[in-house]
Amino acid sequence: MAQNFDVVGIYKSLLLNSPELSMPVAAIQSLVELIKHSKATTIAEFMLSIKDASQQLKSSVRNSISLSAGCDLFLRFVTRNSQDVADFETWKKSLIVRGQSFVEKADACRYKIAELGVPFIKDGSVVLIHAHSRVVSLLLQKAAADHKRFKVFVTESSQTQGGIRSAKVLRAAGIPTTIILDAAVGYVIDKVDMVLVGAEGVVENGGLINQIGSYQMAIVAKAANKPFYAVAESSWNDNQYDLPTYNADTLSFQELNVDYDPKTSEDGTIIAASTASSASPSPASSQTALHMKTSEDRASQGSNPLVDYTPPNYITLLFTDLGVLTPSGVSDELIKLYL
Amino acid sequence: MSKHNELVDDLVAKLKRRQLVGSSTVSQATLKLLIVVISKNNWSTCNQLVTLVKSVGQRLVQANPTELAVGNIIRRVLHVIREEFREAESTASQNQSEVHSAPLTTSSSMYNLLGETGSTPNDNVQYPSSLRSNIIQEIREIKDELENIYDNIKNQASLQIHSNEIIMTIGRSKTVEEFLKMAAVKRKFQVLVAESAPSYSGQEMALELSKAGIETTVIPDSAVFAVMSRVNKVILGTHAVLANGGLVAISGTHMMAAAAKHHSIPVIVCTGLYKLSPLYPYDDDSFNVTFNPDSVLGFEEGDLIEKVTVTNPYYDYVSPEFVNLFITNQGGHPPSYLYRLIVENYDPNDHTFDL
């Protein structure tokens, strides 16, 4: 059984060995490894072990949004194919083959998306990006390789220091890059021509889940009438219609609070605020928020989410592996995918 | 290959010299040429034909990149070709055996990627001899559609225009002209036309409308905002519609649309689907041209012309949030729906003509 097979260990070592690998692809790859080692003899046992493993994966990291999208995609694929199994062993083999070919092709997807976005970067333009996203960096590197001259502002993203990573990568590609404070987005918006962000996930209404700060960037961009583009790969799309549930189940446990309480953290996240109706916190739970160990903890107590949700009406276009789409177009494609 | 070259050269030259202008004219000329190219050349596989059409398309598009309708028509034809081959392939494989052949992937979504079996499409399919005539037939249908495009659009006129309304428009658009004339058959309404300097095509439009018995008033472009509060609807023609729902339309359109938005007046755009392009406005000037500035400030103003720069941009880019409704030959659509029409009419592999 899967108990003696360490999925999480495999996953971590995959990411460690190749930093270019994205989380969902790594997740699928580790699940494929699991299948290789699986000694399950019945489909039910087999499915159970995969589900179990993806659960382990999901709970092993703090920010599981894109990871669970990868796991879910693979699970859905396995479930769909489990109906017409003639021979269990050959079926398992074909799953392994397909999983591996997926991992190979997924990387090509990132290049394709970067290619799509390049024409949007004009000579002499100034681009504002947020934190660090592999595909955004790749897009800008490609544009620079096409001899386009442009400048980049990148937010520091104090939580992960992703902006500093971005700046390193972009400067190495010869792109003039300025790091700004997260709080300085409003200050620089007049100087930039477009805003470009990555995507942890895209929800079914075409909205965007991304590193914290994206939502406020989108609002500022809208107010200044600047285009706000998101670069997403469609496997990382999430089919969560019901945002309040989404928030309670997945977003809130990424809180970096010292003494974490799922109920109290909810009222702090932006999503809960924007879709408040069902997620209003009870007075009792607010009291537990004050029940902290030290006064220092109390001072630092507050909501500190890793990701936020940007509603579709703030997004100009999304660059995906299906092409350049409007948020309503993404919504349509997602519904097709999960139907 | 040489059988069609003279014809292609001819059309390329005409496009370059701007002897052929206007979406409707260029798209009909393109279609006529493509019918000849497809029927006079030897081809046996889908790839061969697609490459052939794309190579012609590339030359035509480069000849005048602002005539987006040329590219659109070529994409429509490519789409038809792919569809016909796909159909022929599926019937062929059904005849051979009950082997399930996966449809050629039209999109490479991640899920499809996972589901791909890795089987290569078999190249040695025997296509039925009727394939060529089927493709030509389909293209002729596009041609018919182009010729009857105004009928389908103007039939929706009485749904959009009501009695005693005041309509505003700008420039001369055949589509809008037909639309308004059709509405005038049943209803009595008033039209305000901005004169559209420096081409003054709005004046011509006003003349045509008044000939049809419509109560028409010409206003200077500068009065658009002032008069807008009295208007019930703005009906616009366009040169092209971009993938996000934005317009490339005669200059002055943006100003009119912005004035309408300020007063919350609905903006309706009448357009044939052949004007719908799968390209995005990479920036506001992507698809613009500047014309001879003589009509703005002539050489007779010699003293002045030395001291100033005069430009005469022909088009405006109007972003999609200014448009409320598109009336096409397939019905009324909001701007957010246009991507759907693009998916239905064009193959994603044909958005660029790179071979």
Classify the oligomer.
heterodimer
**Beta-strand proportion of chain A:** 5-15%
Give a short account of the largest sheet of chain B: 7 strands, mixed
Roughly how many Å apart are the termini of chain B? 16 Å
* Strand/helix succession of chain B: HHHHHHHHEHEHEHEEEHEHEEEH
Q: What is the level 1 CATH name of the largest domain in chain B?
A: Alpha Beta
Q: SS-based structural class of chain B?
A: alpha/beta
Computed structural class of chain A: alpha/beta
> What does the average pLDDT of chain A come to?
76
CATH homologous superfamily label of the largest domain in chain B: Translation initiation factor eif-2b, domain 2
Mean pLDDT of chain B: 87
**Percentage beta strand of chain B:** 5-15%
Percent of residues of chain A in helical segments?
40-55%
Number of domains of chain B: 2
The number of helical elements of chain A comes to 15
What strand line-up does the widest sheet of chain B have?
3-2-1-4-7-9-10
Instruction: Characterize the largest beta sheet of chain A: strand count, sense, and whether it forms a barrel.
Output: 7 strands, mixed
Report on the architecture of this protein.
The complex is a heterodimer of chains A (339) and B (355). Chain A is 51% helix and 12% strand. Chain A is an alpha/beta fold. Chain A has a domain of 108 residues: Up-down Bundle (Four Helix Bundle (Hemerythrin (Met), subunit A)), CATH 1.20.120. Chain A is elongated. Chain B is α/β, with parallel strands linked by helices and 355 residues long. Chain B has two domains: 146 residues, translation initiation factor eif-2b, domain 1 (Four Helix Bundle (Hemerythrin (Met), subunit A), Up-down Bundle), CATH 1.20.120; 201 residues, Rossmann fold (3-Layer(aba) Sandwich), CATH 3.40.50. In chain B, strand 9 and strand 10 form a beta hairpin. In chain B, helix 2 runs antiparallel to helix 6. Chain B is globular and about 70 Å long. In chain B, 39% of the residues are buried. Chains A and B meet through helix 4, helix 5, strand 10 and helix 15 of A and helix 5 of B. Chain B: GO terms for molecular function: guanyl-nucleotide exchange factor activity; translation initiation factor activity. Chain B: It is found in: Cytoplasm, Cytosol. Chain B: Belongs to the eIF-2B alpha/beta/delta subunits family. Chain B: Keywords: Coiled coil, Cytoplasm, Initiation factor, Protein biosynthesis.
